[in-house]
Amino acid sequence: MAQNSTKTLRTLERLAPGTPLRQGLERILQQGKGAIIVIGHGEDIDAISSGGFPLRQPQAFTPARLAELAKMDGGIILDDEADNLIAANVHFVPSNEIPSDETGARHRTAQRIALQTGRPVVAVSEGRKIATLYLDGQKIELRSPTEVAARVNQELQTLDRLRRRLDEAEANLTQLEATNLATYRNAVTLIQRAELVRRVGKAIEREAVSLGDEGRLAYIQLADLVRGVTHLQEMTLRDYLSAQRIRSLAKIIERLQEMDETDLDDPAKVGKVIGFPDLDEPVTPRGYRILSKVGRLPEPVREELIRHFKKLPRILAASPADFEKVEGIGATRASHLRHFLDRLLAVAENWAPQGI
């Protein structure tokens, strides 16, 4: 999944405004032509190609050359890096058994090529005046920078609201843990919101990449809004998973990422995917999430603390002398840790539980 996401982002970077490939697509649109352009060449492409003519020697890619070749009826093949033109006027014959939701012949063919070969394929519509990328089962319309920028700004506002709700859920969970009132439902709320923030962030990242240099400010805002979200979700899962289930942490995270939005919105279904019992059952966390917030506390030392004390309430009640019994913790680190926990407990003393 991560590999596919990386491939999509790399392809969108090649197609960003101002790049040679995007300039070539814009020239095709300006001259009122359509095209199918396959990025990548090999036996898989040869197997579904008929007719056309291979260039005797691969020609270095230029926007002008791409636009000229698009004046012919057939498709165009580029090399894997889109640096060279390999063939033109090609008739593509992908399998008709591959399902397609496209109605136009050109777009249907492009979608099937992408699904059959895994190659990025761009269809340029002369009627709609837009280019569309097909890759990894996705259909991505390459809209104008102005349209994309407006949508990115709107989505960043949505993400900002989601991040605030995530921060509220985390603050609430921290107080519940400090007062020993946490349930599996509270953990699920945090895990749900973290996953939603991650998903929206990934969608915005894809849009921002398609803006090229113009998306730089959006990237900075995006990085601030998604910072630490994946780590937060993982630490929460480590806190609440059973000892047996924690061995499958990577698979559980993958299953969460594969849930559709309707199921993700259902606490019971999220709890089932994670492997939690009754969501309203009280539970005591191990302390991973809270300890991950302690400055200058290396991960191996955090692991030793949890291995030594087993549960968060015992960590919260420990004295500096108790902490010094743990490998990797001296007097200075023990004092720093106790001071951090005292501040956390002081806030919890004046807190009343809230339903969020």
Protein architecture, described:
This protein has 356 residues and is of the alpha+beta class. It has 3 domains: 10-142, DNA integrity scanning protein, DisA, N-terminal domain (YojJ-like (1), CATH 3.40.1700; 143-285, DNA integrity scanning linker region (Ferritin); 290-351, 5' to 3' exonuclease, C-terminal subdomain (DNA polymerase, domain 1). Helix content is 56%, strand content 12%. The protein contains 17 helices and 8 strands. The chain has helices at residues 2-14, 20-30, 43-46, 63-69, 105-117, 145-178, 184-209, 216-226, 229-240, 249-258, 261-264, 267-274, 288-291, 299-309, 312-317, 320-324, 331-349, and strands at residues 35-39, 49-50, 53-60, 75-78, 84-92, 121-125, 130-135, 138-142. Strands 1, 2, 3, 4, 5, 6, 7 and 8 form an 8-stranded mixed beta sheet that branches. Strand 4 and strand 5 (84-92) form a beta hairpin. Helix 6 (145-178) runs antiparallel to helix 7. The two termini are 32 Å apart. The model has no long low-confidence stretch (mean pLDDT 94).
User: CATH architecture of the largest domain, please?
Assistant: Up-down Bundle
CATH topology of the largest domain: Ferritin
Strand runs, count: 8
Report how far apart the termini are: 32 Å
- Proportion of residues in helical segments: 55-70%
| CATH hierarchy, class of the largest domain | Mainly Alpha
- Uncertain ranges: none
